[in-house]
Amino acid sequence: MSRVSTADVAIIGGGVIGAVCARAAAERGLHTVVFEPGPDPAAASAASAGMLAAQIEPTDQLLLGLGVRSRDHYEPLAAALKDTTGIDIGFWRGGIASVALADAEVDQLREYVALQRQAGLRCDWLEPGDVHERWPTAAPECVGALYAPEDGAVDPQALTRALLADARRLGAALVSEPVEEIRIADGRVTGVRAAGSTVAAERVVLAAGAWSPRLKGLPRDLPIEPVRGQMAMTPWPADTPPAILYHIRHGYVLARGGDAILGSTMEHAGFEGKVTNEGLAQIFRSAVRLLPALASLTVSRSWAGLRPVTPDGRPILGPDPDVAGLYYATGHGRNGVLLAALTGEVIGDLLTKGETDVDLAPLSPTRSFPEIPEPDILTPDT
Ligand SMILES: Cc1cc2nc3c(=O)[nH]c(=O)nc-3n(C[C@H](O)[C@H](O)[C@H](O)COP(=O)(O)OP(=O)(O)OC[C@H]3O[C@@H](n4cnc5c(N)ncnc54)[C@H](O)[C@@H]3O)c2cc1C
């Protein structure tokens, strides 16, 4: 255990969300300590595809707005992190195509395109000929695509590493121990307990992903479930321009460097962060459907991670209404990389100014959550 005994802010968790909050706090001059024991082998951030897919499934208007706003932070953030840490976060703004593989999907995607254009966002409908002109080896049965030219991706591992490195450069301390308990007295946070010692802190940010509800001392239950996503990697097919091709039910393929990242499943499997034959079979079937040239390529890696998912798919972000100094930055579900940049800004502003221009009521830990629907065991998703 480090010799840190007091801090302005203690951050629980050093995934992408804890890392972005640590950097935001340290940048604002707060003496910050991040507790991250692992990361846990099943943590979400390292497993993520890293898509900045703000406009692909705009079924939740609130998440669409937050996602677009967060995505637009990435260009300057990538440049700033490269400048200060030398780490390239792999920011790529080459657009994402959500392809229709059956006529029945066309109307829905066209409706999404129209809605987004009405909202002033750039979003196009590509006819099958346009899709095949851009990506000649894409699914032959493709009947069109929603194309979000400003969506893209980052390398989530590089992003987390760069955020933590920058937080440390700005003075944050990293402690390689799990927090055992959040300490609260008289309606105020007083610190955290880790490795048998207490670190005094007037502000604590809970950013422990799927493990957040397990922290001792929390003043309330948090409705966050681990939802497993399996992934695989192969080389990106030669003579195919880099792309992110997505299908609402059949997963996605994403070019990163010379590799293709194939994803993913949505599985309620508790805290088992393992890959299975069934999960991988589904991913391969889907990926080959989107990009048939993948069929003959060798699988170089497979892995899985646990998304921290709330019943309404929105993060839990903001202060606890009853405990002064306790903040939540958790439950980012399928969009934690996308929403990380904005999450850092919100937490940084709350810690220093006590307010933010983001409406936090729909993200409050005390909002009313819908009943959790019976899960599909293997639903492809981000
Ligand atoms: C397969 C997959 C694909 C995904 N694809 C995308 C995508 O394309 N785009 C996107 O935006 N999002 C995507 N996501 C979602 C995104 O990865 C997550 O929302 C995000 O990484 C959550 O970050 P986090 O920091 O909250 O959680 P995590 O990364 O899980 O980090 C939580 C950390 O808390 C630590 N911890 C746990 N308990 C304690 C404790 N007691 N004390 C201290 N630390 C503790 C753990 O070790 C862990 O490192 C994907 C997720 C998965 C699994």
Number of H- or I-type helical stretches: 9
CATH top level label of the domain at 93-151 and 225-309: Alpha Beta
Rg on CA atoms, Å: 21 Å
Question: In whole angstroms, how far apart are the ends?
Answer: 36 Å
Q: Roughly what is the average pLDDT, rounded to an integer?
A: 95
Structural class: alpha/beta
For CATH, the homologous superfamily of the domain at 93-151 and 225-309 is named as D-Amino Acid Oxidase, subunit A, domain 2
Helical coverage, percent range: 25-40%
Strand content: 25-35%
Give an account of the 3D structure.
With 382 residues, the protein is an alpha/beta fold. The chain has a domain at 93-151 and 225-309: D-Amino Acid Oxidase, subunit A, domain 2 (D-Amino Acid Oxidase, Chain A, domain 2), CATH 3.30.9.10. It has 9 helices and 18 strands. Strands 1, 2, 8, 9, 10, 11, 17 and 18 form an 8-stranded mixed β-sheet that branches. Strands 5-6-4-13-14-15-12-16 form an 8-stranded mixed β-sheet, with helices on both faces. A two-stranded antiparallel sheet has the order 3-7. The site of flavin-adenine dinucleotide has 45 residues, from α1, α2, β12, β16 and α9.
